């Protein structure tokens, strides 16, 4: 890792570890999650001095693209603080132009070395898609659009998913990781030259742990 120092006039410089590679960025996420699970969180980068030092610019070490579920607060479950994660969240971590643009901004403008896609068990979007498969019904309004985007993953493992919803959760995480790679030239190019890694993680709501499901470049 390299050292990044952010200085503010009249204050001591704030010195923090900044991961220079996708692997070291992933290591920071994994270590933070272990602290969270063990109840030993450090609550890093949450003090007033760090907040002030970050005001002129940001340099997050990872993009966290996850489900909007209220139980998936990224900075909490990975024990990170201000300026550490560039967080993009949608129900069922479904992808649209705004999502792609936000992630590409973090990669191209902020030089972030890692994208982590975060899914979880007991996902409402997955449950709604499975309900649609079982009964042939769709929800109303724009919720239907979310369910339709998740449906492709559910149908790919239909028989398994009807017996075990985790099969659908894991497939949707893999699908999202691969779709980001297919849809974004910025992501594909950065992966090809080794400046970026992607990982798909599944979060267990009861245990608080994350499991690796998929990955590229890490």
Automatic annotation (TrEMBL):
Q: Which Gene3D superfamilies match?
A: Carbonic anhydrase
Swiss-Prot/TrEMBL keywords: Lyase, Zinc
Q: What is its EC number?
A: 4.2.1.1
Q: Which domain of life is it from?
A: Bacteria
Q: Which InterPro entries does the entry mention? A: Carbonic_anhydrase, Carbonic_anhydrase_CS, Carbonic_anhydrase_sf
Catalytic activity line of the entry: hydrogencarbonate + H(+) = CO2 + H2O
Which CDD domains does the record match to this protein?
A: beta_CA_cladeC
Q: What is this protein's function?
A: Catalyzes the reversible hydration of carbon dioxide to form bicarbonate.
Q: Which PANTHER family match?
A: CARBONIC ANHYDRASE, CARBONIC ANHYDRASE 2
Q: Can you tell me which family this protein belongs to?
A: Belongs to the beta-class carbonic anhydrase family.
Q: What is this protein called?
A: carbonic anhydrase
* Source species of the chain: Phytohabitans kaempferiae
């Amino acid at each position: 890792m390299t050292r990044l120092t952010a200085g503010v006039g009249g204050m001591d410089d704030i010195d923090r570890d900044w991961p220079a590679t996708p692997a070291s960025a992933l290591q920071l996420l994994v270590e933070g999650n272990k602290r969270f699970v063990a109840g030993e969180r450090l609550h890093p980068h949450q003090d007033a001095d760090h907040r002030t030092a970050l005001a002129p610019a940001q340099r997050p070490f990872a993009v966290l693209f996850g489900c909007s579920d209220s139980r998936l607060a990224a900075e909490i479950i990975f024990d990170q603080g201000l300026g550490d994660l560039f967080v993009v969240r949608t129900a069922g971590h479904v992808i649209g132009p705004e999502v792609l643009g936000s992630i590409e901004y973090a990669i191209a403008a902020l030089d972030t070395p890692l994208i982590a896609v975060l899914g979880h068990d007991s996902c409402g979007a997955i449950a709604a898609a499975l309900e649609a498969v079982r009964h042939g019904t769709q929800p109303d309004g724009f919720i239907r659009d979310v369910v339709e985007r998740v449906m492709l993953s559910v149908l790919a493992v239909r028989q398994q998913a009807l017996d075990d919803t985790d099969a659908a959760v894991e497939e949707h995480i893999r699908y999202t990781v691969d779709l980001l790679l297919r849809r974004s030239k910025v992501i594909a190019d950065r992966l090809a030259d080794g400046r970026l890694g992607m990982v798909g993680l599944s979060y267990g709501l009861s245990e608080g742990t994350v499991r690796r499901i998929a990955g590229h470049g890490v």
